[in-house]
Design a protein that fits this description.
62% helix, two-stranded antiparallel ribbon, 184 residues, mainly alpha
Length: 184
């Protein structure tokens, strides 16, 4: 279902709007490497009264599917670590507000531009982690010892980045991160 929704629409005439829709689909596909789709039947014919209805008054196939959906969510959900900590409800809302703010800053929002915004902050934090570790080194020191400390600090920083990054195509950012640390 997800693959079908993200499939490109043919654009033989070069329509700008279709190109934009396909670009959005590409961006969503980048973020959704582990997507699960689930459809629910209509809960009741009188949708305007849904808030007032109890489960017994809803279509039973809807109630059953809703319970299945809850189980699917429980099975796939895991906390996302952002800047070194798991998000609670209020922090998640704040996180979503930041996402919306970042999306609204670009003319055609894409998950790629959004990922870059958040990965940049994560990258900066990881570079600071490396720098803090290296500034504790007391000089003079043997070159082998300095190299060993550098490698351990670099590995710790890369591990932190790998745990926090967004998107499946993070290798490019990870490589840039690794190169920045190697140059220091």
């Amino acid at each position: 279902m997800v693959d079908e929704a993200l499939r490109h629409v043919p654009n033989h005439d070069g329509d700008k709007n279709i190109d934009q829709v396909n670009q959005i689909r590409d961006s969503l596909a980048i973020m959704g490497d582990n997507s699960t789709a689930f459809s629910l039947p209509q809960p009741h014919l009188q949708r305007t009264k849904l808030c007032d209805l109890k489960d017994g008054e809803l279509d039973q196939s809807y109630v059953q599917k809703r319970e299945q959906l809850k189980e699917v969510v429980k099975s796939v959900i895991r906390p996302k670590i952002v800047q070194g900590k798991s998000l609670n409800g209020n922090e998640f809302v704040s996180f979503l507000e930041k996402i919306l703010e970042a999306l609204n800053k670009v003319e055609i929002p894409s998950t790629g531009s959004l990922v870059e915004v958040f990965n940049k902050k994560i990258l900066e934090g990881c570079l600071k982690l490396y720098e803090d570790s290296m500034t504790k080194v007391i000089l003079p020191i043997h070159e082998e010892s300095l190299q060993s400390i550098h490698e351990a600090s670099r590995a710790e920083s890369l591990k932190s980045f790998d745990e926090q990054h967004f998107g499946r195509h993070h290798a490019r950012n990870l490589l840039k991160h690794s190169m920045k640390i190697s140059k220091r």
